[in-house]
Design brief:
By secondary structure, the chain is mostly beta strands. It has one helix at 106-109, and strands at 3-7, 10-13, 18-25, 33-39, 46-52, 58-60, 68-73, 78-83, 92-99, 118-119, 123-128. The strands form two sheets. Strands 2, 4, 5, 6, 9, 10 and 11 form a seven-stranded mixed β-sheet that branches. The protein starts with a strand and ends with a strand.
């Protein structure tokens, strides 16, 4: 069974850091796009970051550039999201997602949740002010 499992969420003060992990089973991350998304109460699910496991290219939402870093350990089938300088507006449920059926022009679609086939269960990140 294909599974994605997020971990690492929690409660942190503004300015603090968290590292989220997304562990995959049932498939390998090779030749996959792995995205991080978040959804706050009353808001649409939005793309935060994405990594192409085949060539290592990364993408970030403008709101997190310079603060968040996505990385992977393909041998462990795990993708990470290092979140620094956290703000209250970062509070959301964070999800990882994977897509392998298409990788062309990833820069144009990485941030759309509709493009991803596999999803994790989500992990809560709460940033207090």
């Amino acid at each position: 069974e294909v599974q994605l499992v997020e971990s690492g969420g929690g409660l942190v003060q503004a300015g603090g850091s968290l590292r989220l992990s997304c562990a995959a089973s049932g498939f390998t991350f090779d030749d996959y796009a792995i995205g991080w998304f978040r959804q706050a109460p009353g808001k649409e699910r939005e793309g935060v970051s994405c990594l192409s496991s085949s060539d290592g290219r990364t993408y970030y939402a403008d709101s997190v550039k310079g603060r968040f870093t996505i990385s992977s350990d393909n041998a462990k089938n795990t993708v990470y999201l290092q979140m620094n300088s956290l703000k209250p507006e970062d509070t959301a449920v964070y999800y990882c997602a994977a897509e392998s059926r298409k990788l062309r022009l990833l820069r144009l679609w990485w941030s759309s949740p509709y493009e991803y086939e596999y999803w994790g269960q989500g992990t809560q990140v709460t940033v207090s002010s």
